[in-house]
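Re: [ENG-882] Designed sequences occasionally contain unexpected residues at chain ends

Forwarding the minimal case from QA. Structure tokens:
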């Protein structure tokens, strides 16, 4: 999908609005948390390497509960 968007649209900027982490607050780890955000970041950089990207932190991007 990202490859198609990059090939068929002229994107001026990308806004990522947060909440990429699941709602299972008690079951995910810090490593899973960091891995998810790194994967998203890598995909955006891969398909849109020169497009300005703006991140917003959602209420699920904080450190896992009780950690």
């Amino acid at each position: 999908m990202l490859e198609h968007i990059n090939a068929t649209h002229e994107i001026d900027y990308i806004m990522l609005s947060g909440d990429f982490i699941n709602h299972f607050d008690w079951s995910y780890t810090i490593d899973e948390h960091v891995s998810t955000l790194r994967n998203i970041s890598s995909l955006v950089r891969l398909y849109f390497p020169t497009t300005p990207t703006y991140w917003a932190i959602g209420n699920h991007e904080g450190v896992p509960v009780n950690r």
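QA comment: On inspection the terminal residues look reasonable. Residues 2-30+37-55 form one domain. Proposing we downgrade this to a documentation issue.
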